[in-house]
Structure formats: structure tokens, C-alpha cells
């Protein structure tokens, strides 16, 4: 959690500090909370100064390990797609593991003309709670000239193994006082021999 809060503080300074942030979309806060046996990962996304958002713009969180299908939510006007690779805006090269899901939220609402606006919370469930470093890329437009602006920034995602190792179940012990089948068989064979031995002793 300290790493997550540290990342959030750094991104807040970048987004709202004295210098203008010339970037697309930024995750200014990431929180992890338990939910129904899984963990809810929530990303608070901000549109920085001098940026505008229009239909078709999107951002991608890479390598979201342990994703629970159909568990994601977003503010109105956003839709989620899940893929193993990308999508990634032009000229950006994030590390992207082809075996782990990427989460992409795409915007389809009205144009937001001015930046430094919180766009809301975007969240999804994961089977994992441990945080590791990853990337977020986004594509928006510059307010000044309307040209596209693609950005990449660091974020945190669930990491770890999603496969639960098998549990070794010890064999059920025989309850005390209940003889095993082999013992019963030996006793059954031995009883006639004991009776024969007693008869021979009497005759002697």
C-alpha cells in the first residue's frame, strides 16, 4: 500500500504542481480493497491542463494479472475491452506481457474541452492483491491546436501467481478400535486352529 500511495503522491504533483503537465491521461490514485474473495483495483484518472477529451480517446492499463471477467466498471461514456496485447497509441513502447490481460477503457461521450478535470474512478476485480510496476498509455488531444497527444506513464497493477497450488490431503486414519480388513482375515483363519489345538490338549 505504501508503494501505491507513493505513486499516487508523485502523480498528483505531476498533474497539479506548479508546472503545467503536458500529457494525456494520468492515474493520480490507485487503491486496492477486498471484495467478495477478490480485490477491487480502482484507478482515479485525471485529464491534465491543456488537454481535451473526445469520443474515440482511450487509455490502457497493461498486464492486469488475475483479472476477473466481466468485473470492471467505469463512469458513464466509457466502455472496457480486454486484450492480451495493446492497444497502444502510436510511437509508444510499453512493456506488455502477451500472456496477461490488458484493460482498455474507450470514451464515447461528449467532448470535454478543458483539462485538469477528474474523470472519475475506473475499477476492475483481480484475484490478486500484491502490487507491482506497470504502464498506462493514453491518447487525447491538445487544447491549443487540437492535435493528438499520446502519453505513457507508470502505474501499479496486480502481480503474482493466479494458480492455487493443490492441497495435500492426508489419508483418513483408521478409527481406534476398528480392525483393518487384513486383521479381520487373519483372525478368521486363526480361530479354527485355536479350536483344534484345544481339542488335542484335552485328548492328551
Your description of this structure?
By secondary structure, the protein is α+β, with helices and mostly antiparallel strands. The protein has a single domain (2-158), classed as Sandwich (Immunoglobulin-like). Helices cover 19% and strands 35% of the residues. The chain has 2 helices and 9 strands, in the order H-E-E-E-E-E-E-E-E-E-H. Strands 3, 4, 5, 6, 8 and 9 form a 6-stranded antiparallel sheet that branches. A 3-stranded antiparallel sheet has the order 1-2-7. Strand 8 and strand 9 form a beta hairpin. The termini are far apart. Residues 5-22 have low confidence and may be disordered.
How far apart the termini lie comes to 90 Å
Beta-strand portion reads 25-35%
Helical amount: 10-25%
Poorly predicted runs: 5-22
Structural class by helix and strand composition: alpha+beta
Counting DSSP H or I runs of 4 or more residues, the number of helices is 2
Mean pLDDT: 80
What is the number of domains? Answer: 1
Largest pleated sheet: 6 strands, antiparallel
> Which architecture name does CATH use?
Sandwich
Q: What is the string of helix and strand elements? A: HEEEEEEEEEH
> What sort of overall outline do the alpha carbons produce when their principal axes are compared?
globular
State the CATH topology: Immunoglobulin-like
Broad CATH class:
Mainly Beta
Q: What Rg is obtained from the alpha carbons, in whole angstroms?
A: 32 Å
Count of strand segments: 9
Amino acid at each position: 500500500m505504501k508503494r501505491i500511495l507513493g505513486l499516487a503522491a508523485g502523480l498528483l504533483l505531476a498533474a497539479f504542481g506548479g508546472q503545467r503537465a503536458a500529457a494525456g491521461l494520468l492515474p493520480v490514485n490507485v487503491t486496492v480493497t477486498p471484495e467478495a474473495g477478490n480485490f477491487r483495483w480502482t484507478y482515479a484518472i485525471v485529464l491534465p491542463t491543456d488537454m481535451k477529451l473526445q469520443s474515440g480517446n482511450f487509455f490502457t492499463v497493461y498486464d492486469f494479472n488475475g483479472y476477473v471477467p466481466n468485473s470492471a466498471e467505469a463512469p458513464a461514456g466509457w466502455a472496457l475491452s480486454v486484450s492480451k496485447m495493446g492497444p497502444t497509441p502510436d510511437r509508444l513502447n510499453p512493456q506488455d506481457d502477451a500472456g496477461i490481460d490488458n484493460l482498455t477503457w474507450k470514451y464515447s461521450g461528449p467532448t470535454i474541452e478543458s483539462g485538469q478535470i477528474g474523470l472519475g474512478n475506473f475499477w476492475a476485480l483481480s484475484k490478486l492483491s500484491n502490487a507491482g510496476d506497470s504502464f498506462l498509455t493514453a491518447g487525447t488531444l491538445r487544447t491549443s491546436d487540437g492535435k493528438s497527444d499520446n502519453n505513457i506513464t507508470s502505474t501499479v497493477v496486480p502481480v503474482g501467481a493466479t494458480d492455487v497450488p493443490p492441497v495435500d490431503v492426508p489419508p483418513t486414519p483408521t478409527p481406534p478400535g476398528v480392525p483393518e480388513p487384513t486383521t479381520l482375515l487373519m483372525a478368521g483363519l486363526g480361530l479354527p486352529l485355536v479350536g483344534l489345538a484345544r481339542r488335542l490338549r484335552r485328548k492328551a
